[in-house]
Structures are given as C-alpha cells and as structure tokens.
Design brief:
Blueprint lengths: L5 H17 L6 H31 L8 E7 L4 H20 L3 E6 L2 E5 L2 E3 L2 E3 L1 H5 L4 E7 L10 E11 L13 E6 L7 H5 L3 E6 L4 E5 L5 H27 L15 E6 L4 E4 L4 E3 L2 H4 L5 H7 L6
Parallel strand pairs: 6-11
Antiparallel strand pairs: 1-3, 1-7, 2-3, 4-5, 6-7, 8-9, 9-10, 11-12, 12-13
Helix pairs in contact: 1-2
Length: 303
C-alpha cells in the first residue's frame, strides 16, 4: 500500500546521507551524529504513522456501513431534465427524512445522508441501502411547458458514493487547485459578501467539486475535501477490483453511464431494468416511499 509520507521520508533520508558524510570531519562528528539520530527518529515516526493509516484503511475497506453522498446531474432533455433531476433528488430526501436519517446539502445538487434506519426488521446504513441507485434515471412524461400534450423523454444521472475521510486516500496538496468566490443566493450578507464558496480541482484526475452551502470558507473547504476523497476512493476501489480480476465490477460503479430505471408517468410505472421488474405506484414512490424498491435492489449484490 502506498506510503503517504514517501516524499518526506526521502527528504529526511537525503539529510541523513549528508550528515553521514560530515562524520569524517572530527570537528563536526558529534553534531552530525546527533543530527542523524534525530532524523532517523523522524523517519521511524513517519513509517509508524503510515503503517497505522494503512491498517486503518485495510480494516475499513467495507464501506457499506458508511454514510453516503448523492450527486445529481441533469442529462438529456434541457430544462425538463433539470426539473426531473431535482424531483428525483427530492424523492431521496423525502425517503431519508421519513426514516429519520439526516440530510445535508453539500452543494446545489449534492446531498449527504447520514445515520441509520430500520427497514424490514433490519438496521441499515445509508450507503448500504442506496449504493445501487447510481446510474441513469429516465423519465417519460408530458412537461408542464408542453402545449401539444406530447410525451417527452429526459434523463438525470445519480452517483452514490460512500462518505470516507480525506486521510483514507492519498491526496497531495500539490495536486489541488483551490478557487474561492462569493456564494451568492440565499444565506445572508456573509454568504454574499465573503469569498466562502469553494471550487476544488484535483489536477491528476481532473475531478472538480464545489461547496458553497456553509457560511464559512473553512467549512466549505472541508466539505470539498470530503467529496473529493469519496470520489477518489471510488476510483481506487474500481482499480482494485480490476487488479483482483473480479468477474463482476461492484454494482453502482460501472452503471453510472447506463440506464437503470424508467419512470413512465402516463402509466404510473417505474421499471428497474437490472431487475426486470416494474412497480405501478410511481406517484407514491416519488413522494419518498422507496422502501420496496430499495430492498428489491439489494438482490443485485449477489448477481
């Protein structure tokens, strides 16, 4: 496993080599010996810290018991796609609130769900329950702006990540590009007048995350790092699955570009294409009554 202190250790080892060269000078010998001892103590501390972090990471590779982050992106369909994406995201918010889970907005179209809930006589963590919701959600309905009564098709995609701590993945400060702007919109004078909004770019991967909901820049910085860590963890996990030669990529990772569900309003029908199953209570499902759908998707774990 990668040592996050590799560069620091290499720098300290170079200093040790420099001081070892000074040992040949009788006048500097004692000073060099003392310096070498201090440098080696620092190296040992960093090695121990790296080992502790790796043990922690190994022990927590099962992230199914974690909180989750849901990111919504509007797809094909213009304004109707954005309206559909907002409606879809609110269905999950209603579900979470009805089950006494905590919902926080991390950005305009990104929420975090935390806590635990009882469902079907079992305790569930948010990521465990919602991890199969990643993918493209297609809607078929007559938009309110449609004067001819024609059915339109639009899409929105969801990405569901486990919440992981920033130290769970390797994030180098040199790889980060920070931008700070005024948040704008609701939130009071402070939000509008102070550069509290954060845009964080991870240069090696090109991943961009934004956080602007909090009033203080420091809080938004932490949220941005947390979102980045979750996305990087997901990439690392996919690579790990490939390196293990897994016959099946983890469901929810390779499905984001694929259509997983169709929501047909004229027929009041929701169809999950992975399960080849339909429900005919679409209106109540979008009010947050997702229990049956989410439980049915748990069978995907064994497919």
């Amino acid at each position: 496993m990668h040592n996050p202190f590799e560069q620091q250790i290499a720098h300290l080892q170079a200093q040790v080599a420099e001081n070892e060269a000074l040992m040949r000078d009788p006048e500097l010998q004692e000073l060099a010996r003392s310096e070498i001892a201090a440098l080696r103590a620092q190296i040992e501390s960093l090695l121990a810290a790296a080992e502790a972090m790796n043990v922690t990471k190994t022990a927590s590779t099962d992230v199914t018991q974690n909180n989750c982050i849901i990111e919504m992106r509007a797809g094909a369909g213009g304004d109707e796609a954005k309206l559909w994406g907002d409606e879809l995201l609110h269905a999950y918010i209603r579900f979470a609130e009805s089950h006494r889970l905590k919902v926080e907005y991390l950005d305009t179209d990104v929420i975090k769900i935390s806590g635990r809930t009882q469902l079907n006589a079992r305790s569930w963590a948010p990521y465990q329950l919602l991890r199969f919701e990643s993918g493209v959600h297609r809607v078929q309905r007559i938009p309110v702006t449609e004067s001819m009564g024609r059915i339109h098709t639009s899409t929105a995609s969801l990405a569901v990540y486990p919440e992981v701590a920033p130290h769970s993945v390797q994030i180098k400060e040199a790889d980060l590009q920070w931008q700070f702007t005024r948040a704008g919109g609701a939130g009071g004078q402070n939000v509008n007048k102070v550069n509290s909004a954060v845009r964080l770019t991870h240069i090696p991967t090109g991943i961009v995350v934004q956080a602007r909901q909090e009033r203080k820049q420091a809080q938004n910085r932490q949220i941005a790092l947390q979102m980045l860590a979750s996305k990087l963890w997901e990439i690392e996990e996919e690579e790990r699955q490939k390196s293990l030669g897994a016959a099946r990529q983890a469901i929810g990772r390779n499905m984001r570009a694929e259509k997983i569900r169709t929501y047909n309003f004229p027929q009041n029908r929701l169809t999950d294409h992975r399960l080849n199953h339909s429900w005919y209570n679409l209106s109540t499902i979008l009010q947050g009554q997702l229990d049956e759908v989410l439980l049915a998707c748990q069978t995907l774990e064994s497919t």
